[in-house]
Design a protein that fits this description.
The structure is a homodimer of 886-residue chains. Chain A has 886 residues and is of the alpha/beta class. The first copy, chain A, has 34 helices and 34 strands. Chain A has an 8-stranded mixed β-sheet. Chain A starts with 5 loop residues before the first strand and ends with a helix. The relative contact order of chain A is 0.06. Chains A and B meet through α25, α27, α28, α30 and α32 of A and α25, α27, α28, α30 and α32 of B.
Amino acid sequence: MAVKYVYFFGDGNAEGSGKMKNLLGGKGANLAEMTSIGLPVPAGFTISTEVCTEFYKNDRQYPAGLKDEVAANLAKIEQMMGKKFGDAANPLLVSVRSGARASMPGMMDTVLNLGLNDETVQGVIAQSGDERFAYDAYRRFIQMYSNVVLGMDGDILEHQLEQLKERRDVANDTDLSAADWKELIAGFKETVQQELGHPFPMDPQEQLWGAVGAVFGSWMNQRAITYRRLHSIPAEWGTAVNVQSMVFGNMGDDCATGVAFTRDPSTGDKIFYGEFLVNAQGEDVVAGIRTPQPINRDHGDSELPAMEEVLPDCYAQLVEIKNILEKHYRDMQDIEFTIEKHKLYMLQTRNGKRTAKAAVKIAVDMVDEGLISKEEAVLRVEPNQLDQLLHPSLDPDAERDVIAKGLPASPGAASGEVVFSADEAEEFAKGGHKVILVRVETSPEDIHGMHAAQGILTARGGMTSHAAVVARGMGKCCVAGCGDIKVDYKAQQFTDRAGKVFKKGDMITLDGSTGEVMAGKVPTVDPELTGDFGKLMVWVDDIRRLKVRTNADTPHDSKVARDFGAEGIGLCRTEHMFFEAERIMAVREMILSEDLEGRKRALAKIIPMQKGDFLGIFREMKGLPVTIRLLDPPLHEFLPHTDEEIAALAKEMNVSEGALKQKVESLHEFNPMLGHRGCRLGITFPEIYDMQVQAIMEAACELVKNEGFDIVPEIMIPLVGEVKELAILRANACRVADATNERYGTAVTYLVGTMIELPRAALTADAIAEEAEFFSFGTNDLTQTTYGLSRDDAGKFLPMYVEQEIYPEDPFVALDQSGVGQLVQMGCDKGRQTRPDIKLGICGEHGGEPSSVIFCHKIGLDYVSCSPFRVPIARLAAAHAVLLEQ
Amino acid sequence: MAVKYVYFFGDGNAEGSGKMKNLLGGKGANLAEMTSIGLPVPAGFTISTEVCTEFYKNDRQYPAGLKDEVAANLAKIEQMMGKKFGDAANPLLVSVRSGARASMPGMMDTVLNLGLNDETVQGVIAQSGDERFAYDAYRRFIQMYSNVVLGMDGDILEHQLEQLKERRDVANDTDLSAADWKELIAGFKETVQQELGHPFPMDPQEQLWGAVGAVFGSWMNQRAITYRRLHSIPAEWGTAVNVQSMVFGNMGDDCATGVAFTRDPSTGDKIFYGEFLVNAQGEDVVAGIRTPQPINRDHGDSELPAMEEVLPDCYAQLVEIKNILEKHYRDMQDIEFTIEKHKLYMLQTRNGKRTAKAAVKIAVDMVDEGLISKEEAVLRVEPNQLDQLLHPSLDPDAERDVIAKGLPASPGAASGEVVFSADEAEEFAKGGHKVILVRVETSPEDIHGMHAAQGILTARGGMTSHAAVVARGMGKCCVAGCGDIKVDYKAQQFTDRAGKVFKKGDMITLDGSTGEVMAGKVPTVDPELTGDFGKLMVWVDDIRRLKVRTNADTPHDSKVARDFGAEGIGLCRTEHMFFEAERIMAVREMILSEDLEGRKRALAKIIPMQKGDFLGIFREMKGLPVTIRLLDPPLHEFLPHTDEEIAALAKEMNVSEGALKQKVESLHEFNPMLGHRGCRLGITFPEIYDMQVQAIMEAACELVKNEGFDIVPEIMIPLVGEVKELAILRANACRVADATNERYGTAVTYLVGTMIELPRAALTADAIAEEAEFFSFGTNDLTQTTYGLSRDDAGKFLPMYVEQEIYPEDPFVALDQSGVGQLVQMGCDKGRQTRPDIKLGICGEHGGEPSSVIFCHKIGLDYVSCSPFRVPIARLAAAHAVLLEQ
């Protein structure tokens, strides 16, 4: 049997399916799947990835028989669409797109309107009755084809277009007439001849094979090769080519184009929700240049006519398709459609992006509707997305000075200073300011500014505009299409609906759930964690194995974390207590003491305060485990460094400025990260750790004795790199702890363990486990030492590393599993080898990052610990870990 | 058969032997060995380590039968020595010493003169005819026993002695009379009664068992337990107890004591060499308080009578023993002897410490004499010791203003400023000064000062004085017993033989090989690397497998290293070239450029200079491999940092001071060790590495083309932590290298590889090896990151860590095999897994440290690279590695 190279799709029948991604590429498989479930997809065919492989095997020759197969499939399209490729009267136009297994930048993307030439353009005029439309399509084709297929610099023709507009003295492309386009096309063809030495191809077959060859050729261009190398994609995979008939939503008033979500992507409500434009191209809806019309009256308060009113039959068909889609894909869909002369075509369907609130509601609803299982529901909510739900919203009782109203494009609330460009947003944010990015509309160039901003406000664009979609993905609050405001970039200001001027730096507040824009800063309230969220989290907790603790240093943080479901404290940093205003003086006195006696005097002042902290935290945690890390940072962190500060402190402490400065200088370190800190302080100044252990144990003994508490404090020694350090410090800690128990007449049990935060600790964890009852992986410092990368200094190159994909992600955000993770795994294995019941946890910031939590589950940690607000995220990720394993 | 607990030795017969260390401890086994080869050892017995084990098993009860065995063995001693334990007329006195398998601080050490009481002291008076001697021995016994056996604070009796001296108005113990000692003994006994509530034991049997019990008890004291814990010594090993009859060299003029070496420990010449004192104790010789007499006339120019003249029969016996010893131990011995009433006793023999020169000569001579094999000879020389031979000695043609002459105690030559205390020596050395430590005599408290000094000069003491022995061990030059000088600590000066005054800070020069002291600084010449040394190194090179390269950045260093036997360059640091005076301006211009064009202009000025460097180095290395590391340090290292320096540079460069300061500040890093350096510079500023690769390749191409060279440059990318960094930089390097080859019309092959100096590089070495043709382990940085320990900042705690044995050694000196070594091993294994023929080397400073070199051999590296002067050390260590494996 001859090998099959080409796979047809159209009119409800497809030779491929959604499962054939390897053969048809991602795009080809999706088109086949949509077709086969009965959606009206414009007919087309996919040239398989095997052709690409053959092509390169045979010195860039196509396999025998390919041409015939393509011709046969083209004929099928012609028949189905009632048009003919290259026909002067009723020509078929096609798009040609690449499509590999994985989406791959650097390859040829798309050529539209292929099949146009001086003759067929006449047919398009005849069919559409719109000469301007036809010539516009033709000139676009020449531009696109010359650039991506013929390899001409795109600026050359673009410049020619700009020159024409100057001659005509018009600003926009839309101001040019059919005659202008016709003149331009003639000019374009001349330029192509001059630049390339051959005419622009008029033969549609030549155009088609040119485009197909360009797709296959682009598989081996430098950018694609580099990308594959960086992402370990084998060259053998190859790319497919998709040829599909063109349909037009801009051929007249019986044409339209639109996008829709099968449920509300913002709230999750079961309402069919979308926007469309009559006589328009798809990009017109997304770009936000014209304000789109609603598809129905179920949502919003637009006064424009709805699709169910204007095109009722098409709308009815769309509703039917919506129902098919939700049943088939069992998830909310984001769809694109075009209506050409009253005929509906589906261009795309995919799982819709949604807010966290919507994700939770849709997941819970679909369980209730019997569409999905609880486990599937849990997997439907991205852990990171929860962040949106866990942050404050505007206080409903606070006064609001509403100055404008737009679309509630992405929920949440935010206050900040007004800025007008992405660069400024980033700059202000770096300086510690909270900003609101205000734009007429946003584009991909603004992404970094949107990241830096607290919220985004745009004057134009709908719920599916760039600003709205991106903001929802980021979990940022966004008010879009706010026509009430007039933005003046030049003057760096905007005016509200009353004409009041807001300048750069003025404070405003957005409510992304109502679309309101307010002057000044409006207070917020804590999020509600019940309802659908509560229901989902019950399922989550039933599924997960990994415990989730929190990093908390105060009774207040401890309470917040408990409310978020924390099951203990994994990291209580005692030095944070040292910094409090009334204590810092005693701490400095300790540091400045020249002898042991002086240090002991100062420590005696600190101990009652530390004890008080621990009492508060233990009470708040109600018997849950609490891991307390003894002093970690270098002592110079507690001293001032500028001359002014030193002078002030010297006066306050009644010591000479010179002596104080000398002490500060003597404590200076070249690489404080690798300096005299952590357990090294405990070794050189044992009295500091003794004081801390005493404070911990006194608090515990008092609670056990007087309040009937049940508590096992976990004393954690930081920065151990060699077991002998721990042996000495553990012996000291036990001595102090036992003495305290004796003094109180109690028998409070306690654990002594260590952070594993240096490569050497992981490498020698078998020895260290001899002295440690628990390990807590301090992956922040472990990442710094494993990479030899200072978090404080990485700013000059780390962004570039992430951008160039040298690092797949910032290793301080997502745990580097292949390097740092290897050490964590090694630490676990070696630790358990010595002490099978050793408690294992992680307390770096990775403990709240989903991919890292999943890794921690996989290697069998007992718990992760993270900041209070990330506790629910870690819980959900831990449940995902279980489900992904199955 | 009953278990045997006690092992006798004496009169040529011993029940134990040198091989029974586990049962008899180190000391007991040695005494048995000496006895059994026929040496006249004072008779005694060893209570085995099994008794210790039994003792602790049975709740501190001695095993049955022990008392009888001890009594029987004591009777044997009595018989052999013709004395009786506790006898009033002719009493046997014994010493009691602990002795475990490994020497162990914290345990009870020694009690001498045991058996003395108010009655037996009369017997000692009668036998010695010296009342003062007898009472002195008695009071010493009470002091020692009260302290180490009865546990009394040693200061109490010492204070009582001081009070007596004050009452008598004398300064030294030697000024006290027999009557004084008698009075003191009465007082001591009263004090013991008061302090302890029971009288000092008068019964010799009670004394003996008290001392034995104290030895066993000390096995479980806190210091011993801690020591065992830190050194992984099991408690089950236990300690032995040695009981040996006392002999006295200070009982009259027919008594003497001395120490000797079977060959000259300074030159290695085959001359029996030693010193003795008539009517003296062993410690008198070592302490250097009296100037000792020579044992013969073969050496030195002492005018004092020699032993061969004064005690010819004893000397003849000693020579006979010397010959037995060298045959038996097949090495030069360091012996201690005592003559009691004309009878010679051997107290100790051990392999003698020696200078490097002596070590080499003795080893080579012993091969010639047929005593040892070449392999043994190679093992006889400690690699680190060679250092002494590799440094300059005084220029024989230089003028010498000799101001004094002492003993040539440790060879070599040194100049420095005079200091009079160890603390000052250390302080001056920290300030960058070279110093000579001048002392009347030295003691163990002076060790740190001796380390810090270039050389040591003492006014008193012989060739075996503390100063002499320690200096030889350290490889420091030392002139001892220089009676020509008068040291005045108070005035901080010394006067020479002419009465000329030398004050603190004055420059002097020592010649440790002649004993001469010179005013001012005398020039030096390079060492001679032929003769015995050359002979030994030929054997070394025949044995070793590991190649030895050098770290060299200049043609001069390259030449020195070649002369020392380097087989290539393992690390050529290109940044050292950047610092040179005429280049630093261009480098700074590059750093201060705001754009790529500016940087390229500056780099164009640097490239000819870099190329010149490489031409010089390649020529010097004559085709041997040269590994060149591209720029590594952060750019701010090239800029000035103080305000004054910045102002000067700004003026010189014609830029504003403010702008320059701002640039310097913008380059500031919190942890430069972990900052924007190494390959991160190559990624962000590819033009810098491009320039360097071009310079390397141009130099290579020119030499190949014009001078017929055969050369394969090895281009090394530093600080890689992720394979993608290397993939990008390797591609860049290949592009530049290939273009250079094309320009020259050459086909110079080159390798591209990387440093493995970050934990992540070792952990992912399998991936990195895909892009690397060689690995060079940068163990300096790898140690810093693995330990999280900045070399620049470790001063505040690292010395304490080494002192407390938390770290067995400074990990920047000797490679930490269990932690850092694990990563090196992993890097090798993973690297070879991907690329079996990958070249592996090490270029950290560990490459010249013997234990690290042996480790590198074990894990199968291809080469080590070290500083030029350490190349012979590494060669020798590499040979040791082979021999130790066998």
